[in-house]
Amino acid sequence: MEISSKENTHFFSNNTILPVDRSSFKSESSASREKQSCCGGIKIFLSALSFVYFAKALSGSYLKSTITQIERRFEIPSSLVGIIDGSFEIGNLLIIILVSYFGAKLHRPRIIGAGCLIMSAGTFLIAMPQFFMGRYRYERFPSTVNSTVNISPCQQDKNQTPLSALEKSQAKINAGCEKEAGSSMWIYVLLGNLLRGIGETPIQPLGITYIDDYAIEENSALYIGCVQTVAIIGPIFGFLLGSLCAKLYVDMGFVDLDSVTITPKDVQWVGAWWLGYLIAGVISVLAGIPFWFLPKHLVKPESRKDSSTSSEQSKFIIEEHKDQHKSYQQQGKIAEMAKGKSLEFLSRLLNFFPSLKILFGNSVYILYLCASIIQFNSLIGMVTYKPKYIEQQYGQTSSKTNFVIGLINIPAVAFGIFSGGVVMKKFRIGVLGAAKLSLGSSFFGYLLLLSLFAMGCENSEVAGLTVSYHGTKQRTDYEQALFSECNSGCSCSRNDWDPICGENGVTYISACLAGCQASNGTGKNTVFFNCSCVGTFESSQSSSAVVGPCQKGNECPKMFLYFLVISVITSYTLSVGGTPGYILLLRCVKPHLKSFALGIYTLAIRVLAGIPAPVYFGVAIDTTCLKWGSKRCGGRGACRLYDSSALRYVYLGLTLVLGTVSIFFGIAVLWVLRKRSSPPDETLSANGERGTCGTQSRKDNFVNSDCLIQSTYWPEKETRL
């Protein structure tokens, strides 16, 4: 194969590549066979890569769907869950530069296969704590756990509780404390997610460049679009899998389900979160198998061999010889080749910093990078805690929340990305137009998000937390307000969380704090009677109560529907700007720096958005907690109840502030482009070919790139909205 020495000497002037003699023509049948072989190989790789994209998107979105389940299972705050979520990005950070810069020289399919194995190992590791940390224990009054001893909720001191039952319960607690004292099993979840990040790293840069290298030029964009389309399907199945597993009890198969006294509507409910990780791990293993049997190189199509524009790999990294039809004459020159490889590696290393300097000297690239970092901070934080927000704000179960996100929000994102590409192609929008479209979608998307402030639910009426025991709004310190005259004769703990719903529609933290004197029934059917605090409530007609918290107000279901409609429209609007933004990113750098620019872009997004955003969003959300749970051995557990109004303002406010700042950076990008552009802006023809570039020729920062309008790829975009 003939390679242009001009392109190669762009980086390494000392390397000389001699042209290879070729026949003047090929027979028609030979060309046909070559085309069939090329298409067959690339289509097999395309199918395998699509399945891998599906697998990684499924496992990534499933993790998002289990955030609240992990928080409850391990009794950890949201800030710590944010660190676990960000560990995936840390794994990417460890090797992304090496993969994006040097990976094209190695056996790319096998590297992807190895990445799948590492990804599956991490997924399995996340599920392992379930099998080593014992059964899940939740707070429940003894009479609700099928006890044959009739204990008055209001008389739970040591003098009135049967000694045998108390000693037995205390012995179990002490044994459990000894087991928990030396273990922090959530660390295994963090390490597993870290491994997932390491394994996922080579899939996108090596897979996409492999397709671009060996696909027919006019089919490259179509193939990449197919891969990204399949990647959108993964999160749909991931959230639906999360919805299914959230309905199943965490210890299913290990305990008698009839003895479980909580329901999926209870804030202490934990679903079978571990089951989905086992399924996702098996899928990742299966997805990696085909790559171990794919070749390092495919036969290039004839149009690519004679093209004046060589592939990304030949532009950025010099290979030894790509002509696979001639015998390798270098086999007798092993020492010379080793020396050449060493010089080549050194040359690539020396050119790393000049390439980095060129990118950082590009004002359009830097401004767009800053805008993207801030915008992804808002989107990552919003999506990470969106299930928690829906559960706490609208009183929905984890199962229903995941079902809604997977079946409604994710398709809206996919349709928005597709619409952005169609608009770009139909109206032949150039770079300046792409910047306008990206900015406009962000502006209107965050404007729609502003309306969600008016679509929240009021706090649930919880005696001692959000309302007083007399029915008035709570204003005093909640810990002091948990006790009142109606329960002053009871020996109650303020740390318990065993909610009951009074006949007056008010939730009480426990039957003891409600002043209940008697109970009837067992398990979920337990009914409490003679509850002194329920009877003193100003709207009370009775003094009985049932197990479980009361439902939110009558207006909350309607507000939830409004929220879903606006959320879907917002997701679509923000996604429309994805493709134009991606094209802007590719067109503002030199062609031979595209891969490197994307690598730096992805690295910056992961380090400055993917890692910190879930953490500080979690810290902010923790400040809105009204009632913290308690660990069995002491210490603060997971939050049981949030202040709905404060949660809404913190969650949506932080998202909007970050989004607004990103819009200002987008305006700066547009201003620089307007300053640099001349009237005949760069246009894209209907078939995707490059038009003329209207930027000033003296500017090195803004040049044409390969003209392929391909489906956008945001880092883990499939789980962002």
CA-based shape: elongated
How many distinct domains?
3
CATH classification class of the largest domain: Mainly Alpha
Q: Strand count, sense and closure of the main sheet?
A: 5 strands, antiparallel
CATH fold annotation of the largest domain: Growth Hormone, Chain: A
Can you identify the CATH superfamily of the largest domain? MFS general substrate transporter like domains
* Rg calculated over all Cα atoms: 30 Å
- The spatial strand order of the largest sheet comes to 2-1-5-4-3
Overall average residue pLDDT: 77
CATH architecture of the largest domain: Up-down Bundle
Concise account of the structure shown:
Keywords: Cell membrane, Disulfide bond, Glycoprotein, Ion transport, Lipid transport, Membrane, Transmembrane, Transmembrane helix, Transport. The protein is mainly α and 721 residues long.
